[in-house]
Every structure is written in C-alpha cells, then in structure tokens.
Amino acid sequence: IVMGESQAMVAEGYNASAATVESNVDSSQSVTNVSLVNGTSGPEGGSTAPAENGTATDNVPVTVPGAGHVDNAGSTLSPEEERLWSIVKANSSEFNAWTALIEETERISQDNIAKIRKVYDAFLAEFPLCYGYWKKYADHEARVGAMDKVVEVYERAVQGVTYSVDIWLHYCVFAINTYGDPDTIRSLFERAVVYVGTDFLSSPLWDKYIEYEHMQQDLSRLAMIYTRILENPIQNLDRYFSNFKELAETRPLSELRSAEESATVTVASDASETAPSESDGKADEGKSQADGTSEPSKLETAGSTDPEELKKYIGIREALYIKAKEFESKIIGFEMAIRRPYFHVRPLNVAELENWHSYLDFIESDGDFNKVVKLYERCLVACANYPEYWIRYVLSMGSSGSMDLADNALTRATQVFVKRQPEIHLFAARLKEQNGDIAGARAAFQLLHSEISPGLLEAVIKHANMEQRLGNVDDAFSVYEQVIAVEKGKENSILLPLLYAQYSRFSYLVLRDAEKARKIIVEALDHVQPSKHFMEALIFFETILPPPRKIEYLDPLVENLIKPNVVTQNTASSTEREELSLIYIEFLGLFGDVESIKKAEDRHCKLFLPHRSRSELKKRSADEFLSSDRTKLAKTYNETAPAQPVSNAYPNAPAQWSGGYAAQPQAWPQPQAAPAQPQQWNPAYGQQQAAYGAYGGYPAGYTAPQAPTPVPQAAAYGAYPPQAYPAAATAPVAAPVQQPAAAPPQAYYNTYY
C-alpha cells in the first residue's frame, strides 16, 4: 500500500469495495438500518464506513493468525512466553494471561514485529473492544515505519470497536500528524462523528475537529461544526455555545456562512429589493442621489455585520442549543450513573447494570430510532459480556422490524462477544425456531451439546421439546438417549439421574405410556446411586401417573436413602434425608392409605426426632414458640380451615410445596406461568437448578436447608403445634382465598413446556 492508497483508505474506510451509503449526519432525518450501523459518508466526501463491532464478515477479519503471521527466522519463545501461550491456548478467555504475554513479548522482542503482530492479532481476536491495545499495536507498526500497516491496524480497530470515541480520536490524531491533505483528514473526522458524534462523551473528538479547523482558518467549516454540535445533547454544551457566540460576534457573517447559506441570503436579498413599491423605489433612489451615495453591492450586503442579521444567525443556533439542553436535562442522571463507559472484563456493579436498562427504557419510549440504535451500541461496549443486553437489543430491533440489525447483533453475540455463554445460544435456538430457521435452531443446540456446555440439562430439555413440537417424537427421544449414553460413560455423573428422571416424565407426557416411563426409571436404578433429588423426581413422577400408585415400589427406595447405611455408601446429608422423608409423607397424605402413612411417620420419628439437640430444643420456651409468627399465621388458617394435613405436624416441613396446598390436598399445584420477558435469562447454570427449574413449585422452590424449628421437649409426637407452610408465611393472610375446584393431577413445567 503506497501513501496515496493509505490516504484513500483513511478517507473512505478499509472496506473500500462495500457499497457507499447516502450521507446523513442530521439524526432528525430518516436513515436506513445499514447506515445506522455501517456508517455513512459525511457531507464532505463519500466515505464508505467500516462494518459492525466484531462482525465475522469484515474484509480484514480479526482472527488468530495462521501461516501469514509467523515469527522471524530463528526466533524462539522464552520459557515465560511458552508458559503464557499454553495458558491462553487452553483458555483463550484468560485476560490476565493475555496481557502478561503481551508485556513479555514486548519486553524481549521489541524489534521482532512479527512476534508482536502475532500476539496482538491473537489477543484482539478474543477481545476486540480493548481500544487501548489497538492503539499500542498501531504504535508498534509506526515505530518500525510501516505507515500502511498503521492504517490497516486502525481500520481493523474501528471495525472492532466502532462506537468508541477514544479509538476514533487516536485515528484522527494519527491522520493529522501523517497526512497534509485536509480533505483526507476531514473525511476521517466525518466518518468518526457519524458513529460517535452524538455520544454524550464525544467532546474530545469534537474539540480535536474544532482545533484542526482553527489551524486551517476555515471559519465557515468551523461555524458548521459548532452548529452540528449544538444539535446534540452532549457534555460541555454550554461551553460550545459560548465559544460559538464569541466567534459569531467577532467575525463577519460572510466568513462564517457556508456557500449554501450565502446563496440563501443572496436570494432573500434579491427578493427584498424587488418587494418595495415603485414610488418607494423612486424615493429611495432620489435620496441616494441627494446624498451622493450609490446602492451597496450584494457582496457588501452579504459581508455586513448588521445587528439584526447577527441576532437572527445566532438565534437559529440558540434554538438548537435550547432544545438539546432540554433533552440533556432528561438524560443527565443516566449519563452520570455510567461509571465505566468502556469495555473491561471485570464485572459491572448491579447499580450500573440497572442504570443501562433504565436508560434504554427511556430512549425506547422517546421513539427516536436513531437514538435507540446508538445507545444500544454504546451499551454493548460497556456491557459486552452480558447476554441479557444482546438479547434485549435483538428483541428491540426485531420488534421494530429491523431484522438486519437483529440478525447482525445476534451474530456478533454468538460468534464473538458472549460466544461461550449458554444462554445466548439457547436464545438463538428459540429465535431461529420462531423465525422458521429449524436448521439454524438445531445447529445452535448441537453447538451447546458439543462445545459450549456439554451435558447442560436445560439445552437437552429444550432441544427435545422443540423436536416434539415439530412432530419428530423419535428425534426428541434420541436427544435424551444420546446424552444419557454419554453420561453413562462418566464416573459418578451428577447429570445422569436428572436425565433419567426428566426422560421418564417426558416419555409419559408425550406418549402417555406409563409402563415405558417406569421402565426408564427402573433402568436408571441400575446405573445411578439414588440421591435426594432423584428420589424427589421419582415421587413427583408417581403423582402424575394414573392410579394405582406404586407405593410398595417407592417405600423401600425411600427407606434405603433416608436410613444411614454404610454398606450402600449413602452420601445424603441428615438434612436431605429428613427433607426427603417429609416429602414422602406428604405424598402419602395424598395417595397412601392409613397403614402406609403410619409406617412412614413412625419411621420419621424414629430416625430424626430423637437426634434433636437439647440446646436446640431449649432455645425457646413453649410459650415463645406458640407466640411465633408462624403460629400466628397458622391460627389464621385454623380459623377457616381447621383440617390440616398430617405433614403440618412436622416442624421441618420444606418450602417446596406451594402455598395454600393444605387447603386443597386433592389437587396438584398449578403450573407457574412462564416468564413474560424472554430476554430475562438466569445466568446461573448449575445442573441441579437447571434440572429442577422445570418442575414449578416442586423442587425448584428449594433453597438452603432450613434449621429445624425448636419444639418443646415435653410435647408428644402427635401434639406438635400446627404451623403454616413456609410459602404461606411470606405475607399476612387477611381472608381465606376461594379455592378452585379440584383439577386432575398435572405436571407443572413452567420453563420447558
């Protein structure tokens, strides 16, 4: 690339073959979706703008270098470089290892530009929003005199972090120091302000633009820059208006007006000359002859500093300034709450994350599509590591009909910025299915199964559900069977029992084949060690099956788990065993007979009640216990519903049963409603939580095990004070709620069905 070609690259953008978009700097005018993200040419030239942040279709892709980027002949890695390279190759998201590697390479290979290029290319492929490292990379190229390479680096930088004021400012400073052609430099400034000129923190870029035009002594361009600034609610707006007034009051208007404005003034002047009547014209002519003066020329009129003309000239800009200040007063609170407008791997605090959501809510409600896009792009620099903002952006663009922007944002999220986070791929699969791209949805699920998060239960469940919705029942079963086969090969797989439980439930709900579903559970017992959560799922499964319930089959399984047993290597904690016993007793209260209930209650008393410590039982007296909040709430229920289930006699009743359950023991709890906002994704991806989030109020309600409630030591087993369920204790009950008629048992899969 020769100097002339590099100048053209600076003026027009690196992607010189792309289609040029019609210029539009005034945000009040309508623009195309492409021009909003891909940039537009400014009024001074036909600039072709760079592509989006991290798009995979850039002409200069930000990828790990291959054969084209190799070390100089004979160069070797130091032991520290080898160690750091091994770390980042094993985990390319290790930011600290990357920065240490860059420092080590710069320290020992300062003159080896090939090694420096290699490490920067690899690092910036992973973290393209780090504008400071793009600047350092360009400085290395400038140090060895490769100006064409400097331009190439800066062009890749503004494609990687397009909505960064800082990187555009560095690029413009480089152009000022390198090129003498004002048109080249102005074109670069125009490209920059298209993207970030409306950014609240864009003052440094505008200041540099003003400084450059001051040096060029082009006052009409300078006045036009001030006019454009005053249209936008940016920082230091008062200073800009004050400087503009000073400029207008100290220079002739003929020097400040653009060619278009001068032409407009001339036309207006001509019209005013022909407007007076003939008699007025003769009188004026006679007066001029009597005074010995002639009519001033049009040029002199245009260059006059008539106070009225000056007032009108400033007044037009002042109106823009006042309007911008009014809008600034609405957003200043949001802007001041943004403490970190740039990208960093460190997490943002909750207040700042919530501020971005509130800011986006406000701008979306304002209805200016240009502002919406620009703010989302700003947000996704600081919040690039948070899938929720990418999901929100995609949904916002989709709802506005801008599918090109929605698809672009989803591609950037899944391929660059949050590519390792499962929720963005789950969202992508769902969106692609809704848009009819079934192959794309399957590809997203396969990526999750194979690379992103193998064995993620939520991905398995949602993939199988999609296939079932499409009528591919065999494929849905195959999804479960393939993952189960993989998990069988692992020792002590935590996922395997959860897979079996979900697979059996799914089989019954789809085929209504109770025997097939039970067969899956029987197979599971041959491959997994029963656990509290597996037995919970098994008990729940029996509740949704048609009678007769297999109580004689369940009872020994529950007993083996809740009894301490060295031979079977029971690893369940005492709290888990006690909770499972209570769950089983609750189940028997619904579906068991008197004998089975008595057996389970007696076993519970024998295993758990004698082990309460004396200190625990003496924490509160019987009177204190009876006056506790729970007892007060229980009394409220006792006044309206005296008949309490047997399980209320147990002070350790877990929180997984739905509130109001005691009042309608004949019906299973209703499913919880699915989330109204699909963009709200739970960032926690623990297997247990993901598995049981599907079961509604049953195991999903589990929190940390609660400490046993103190009970008077002298109280007999059957005389424990009645207490309300924990779910009902969250709010006072003013009056009994009318319960719906009993419904047949049904599963409550709130998320996956």
**Poorly predicted sequence stretches spanning 5 or more consecutive residues:** 15-71, 281-304, 614-753
Q: Approximately how much beta-strand content do the residues carry?
A: under 5%
Kindly name the structural category.
mainly alpha
Q: Could you describe the largest sheet, including whether it forms a barrel? A: none
Number of helices: 35
Mean pLDDT: 74
Q: In total, how many beta strands?
A: 0
Distance between the termini: 58 Å
Which shape, going by the Cα principal axes? Answer: elongated
Helix content: 55-70%
Rounded to an integer in angstroms, the radius of gyration calculated over CA atoms is: 36 Å
Biased composition (Basic and acidic residues): 279-288
Organism: Brassica cretica
Keywords: mRNA processing, mRNA splicing, Nucleus, Repeat
Main location: nucleus
